[in-house]
Amino acid sequence: MKDPKDRLDSLRAGIERRNPAQPEFHQAVREVLDTLAPVFRARPEYAVPGLVERLTEPERQIVFRVPWQDDHGTVHVNRGFRVEFNSALGPYKGGLRFHPSVDIGVVKFLGFEQIFKNALTGLGIGGGKGGSDFDPRGRSDAEVMRFCQSFMTELHRHIGEHTDVPAGDIGVGGREIGYLFGQYRRITNRWEAGVLTGKGTGWGGSQIRPQATGYGSVLFAAEMLQRQGLGLDGRSAVVSGSGNVALYTIEKLQKLGAYPITCSDSEGYVVDDKGIDLDLLKQIKEVERGRVGAYAERRGASARFVPGGRVWEVAGEVAFPSATQNELGADDARALIASGVKAVSEGANMPTTPEAVRLFQEAGVAFGPGKAANAGGVAVSALEMSQNAARSAWTSQRVEEELAGIMRDIHQVCHETAERYGAPGDYVTGANIAGFERVADAMLAQGVI
Ligand code: GLU
Q1: Nearest CA, atom 10, ligand 1
Q2: Which of 264, 268, 304, 314 is the most exposed place for a label (fewest CB within 10 A)?
Q3: Which terms does the record give in the GO molecular function aspect (predicted)?
């Protein structure tokens, strides 16, 4: 029989040929397939022809027109996407991203990652993702509402609490979920709370959902450090981004006694020697929907804004890439390693380039891949679905306890799986194989579909 490594390489080449001009999707697929050879050797049942081919081909891809009018009456046309990637473990589940960079390749990379991430939560959710190349920045509330209504006017026929359950991602937060939910309810005439997650807590949303991704990413880092006999208390932390993930990463770090000193956006980064003032940052980002440059202006002498700079040039003991894909490259990794970084936890999806991941691993830096480290967000989304199904609402304390338990379990399964396959301490291999095993077992049991 062909060596699994050669077989996986030739499968990958075929996938790249079949899906041209989708570099992020190729990267996400390669990153998974590159770690699967040991499991194929140990468990030949996975080597059946067609399994990897099915896993890398979405069950369904929906692309649609989203026309909408701005406040001056001008018509704009955006493109909407929903990729329903894999439903072996449960209804398709994954966020919607509104950002000019969104195309089918980006949505497929996110959807593909989501399959394994969701499997790692152990909560019975399949993988999907969607979004649009719409840019919400600078748009009024009324424009965002009209866009969301138009987007949902098409999307509603494809989703449902037992079919496909979207949520937020970059550019889609509580405001957008509200407009999307309202339009779904209006069109369908159903109070179907479980069709979207990330809802407001007054109308079916879960406590702690906005915090969950950031909190979970910090908990994952704490678990990785604990394995090395270290803690977070007193450690300096470099965080990128200033969206929902970054804000609640900073919040949890502060609660655990760490010292986050940075945040960033596409225009540059802020470094604050006194540590980030979270109330000020929340005011600017969540209330005013402003930029991080304004933080430095208002904070006083301890903070400065570095326009166009890369946040990874700031020394820190733990790093949390929490902005977007491929934001941390090889040079950034070298700078972080030179500054003595001990752990990196991916709050964003695929923020670290493959070369940078390799550098961290070779340097012995604990590296938590997004599939594991940022799974807290979708995990609490699944808890929101449970609450909706039972028409109940759990306390913050209960949700936080569940989240902490889930992150501990994810860390544990990644760690054990890596050891079992001869790669101790390699959370990338552990996460990919553990996620793969769960999905592959379900797919094999359910036949060729
Ligand atoms: N967009 C988030 C993620 O990347 C959350 C998805 C969800 O809650 O469904 O996992």
Answers
A1: 378
A2: 304
A3: glutamate dehydrogenase (NADP+) activity
